[in-house]
Design a protein that fits this description.
The protein has helices at 11-16, 19-38, 51-72, 81-92, 98-119, 144-156, 168-182, 191-196, 201-212, 216-221, 254-267, 290-304, 316-329, 332-339, 344-347, 355-365, and strands at residues 227-228, 233-236, 248-251. It is mostly helical and 366 residues long.
Length: 366
């Protein structure tokens, strides 16, 4: 099916591959191009892209794959978010127009959307965007009022397991937790107490992201060891840092520290966290990714009554708001440190400020 106007395998790619690799690559590309054509624009409605868009996407993703092969010293179909980030960084510094750069980025996002829908991967999010002015600027971001609304909506979203859904043993375990939390004897904990106690997972996740501007991959990688409650900071080790090789100390507000403290205590009551160090897991016991975080933010928009039409809802709305308002409230150096940008040029789109100063800026922002 897939080979009308869109090229399955271009000449440069064919020259790169041996016969067996070519068979694998052709099959992989055929699945991708057919998905673009029949489902890619809106998989839920089974709506595909126009043929011209499919052809251009096929061409640009072919260039991306050849770049990946050069980086990996050979053929692979295991493309990663790091590959996409690296490729777009190189594209950004070429002499091509911003329109070309933007279209290339959209093509790669379509590739990862296919990998997410059809191959069990994760969609790719990026904070790069391209305007006609030639600058790479942040896209949409949460306003100060929306930040407040999202912060409050996180308190309404989610709760601990329902009383009737628990076995007697599990119920006893939760009674101990609620007795401590409600400061009452365990034997006095009643079914109605379950209705009073909302869980702290979502508030801690959302509020930490509102403070730290966490990228989706950082939410996925976050562990309990990142949280330094005594000093009120996140300590992100170099091994878990995204897009750089540095350790980072990230400021948190007092409310966020309280939410994290309560969540870490509550988290011990969930069996799915036993012998695991992830700070947050979904209901299915998976680390959060771009898709699950986008769904969560969409639900928070609904709870908060924030209009999402004509707006691209992604977790980066939170990150962009941190960069925008940290720069306004403090300075560029504070934003660079808080967002963990290795290069000051990256922060320009929105002197290492002390952690305490950045915390003060966060308090004013909230």
């Amino acid at each position: 099916m897939g080979d009308r106007d869109a090229p399955l395998v271009t000449g440069p790619s064919e020259e790169y591959l041996n016969e067996r690799q070519l068979v694998m690559y052709r099959s992989w590309r055929e699945d991708f191009i057919d998905w673009l054509r029949y489902e890619g624009k809106d998989p839920d409605r089974v709506e595909g892209y126009a043929e011209a868009t499919v052809a251009k996407t096929a061409h640009r993703t072919g260039q991306f794959l050849r770049w990946v092969w050069d980086q990996e010293d050979g053929f692979t179909l295991s493309v990663t978010h790091d590959h996409a980030d690296g490729f777009m960084k190189e594209v950004t510094y070429t002499d091509h127009s911003n329109s070309h750069k933007s279209n290339t980025q959209k093509a790669i996002k379509r590739l990862f959307k296919w990998l997410s829908h059809e191959r069990g991967g994760e969609e790719w999010e990026t904070d790069r965007s391209f305007s006609n002015s030639g600058a790479s600027n942040p896209r949409d971001f949460l306003t100060l009022e929306e930040r407040r609304q999202i912060r409050e909506a996180a308190l309404e979203y989610g709760s601990i397991p329902a009383y009737n859904d628990l076995s007697p043993g599990e119920r006893d375990r939760w009674k101990g937790y609620l007795a401590k939390r409600l400061q009452k004897p365990k034997e006095e904990v009643e079914p109605d107490d379950w209705n009073r106690a909302n869980g702290w997972k979502i508030p801690s996740l959302v509020w930490t992201s509102l403070d730290a501007g966490l990228r989706p991959i950082e939410v996925e990688r976050a562990t309990v060891d990142w949280v330094d409650l005594d000093n009120g900071v996140l300590r992100i080790p170099a091994s878990d840092s995204s897009k750089n090789e540095d350790n980072w100390i990230v400021s948190l507000t007092g409310d966020t520290i309280t939410a994290l403290e309560r969540w870490i205590s509550e988290r011990d009551n969930y069996e799915k966290y036993d012998e695991r160090d992830e700070l947050w897991l979904t209901r299915e016991a998976n680390p959060y990714g771009s898709s699950s975080l986008r769904y969560l933010l969409g639900r928070l928009f609904e709870v908060a009554g924030i209009e999402s039409r004509n707006r691209q809802v992604s977790w980066y709305l939170i990150r962009h708001s941190v960069g925008t308002y940290m720069t306004r409230e403090e300075d560029l150096a504070a934003a660079q440190a808080q967002l963990r940008h290795k290069s000051a040029e990256t922060t320009m789109k929105y002197d290492n400020a002390p952690v305490e100063d950045r915390r003060d800026a966060l308090e004013r922002m909230n």
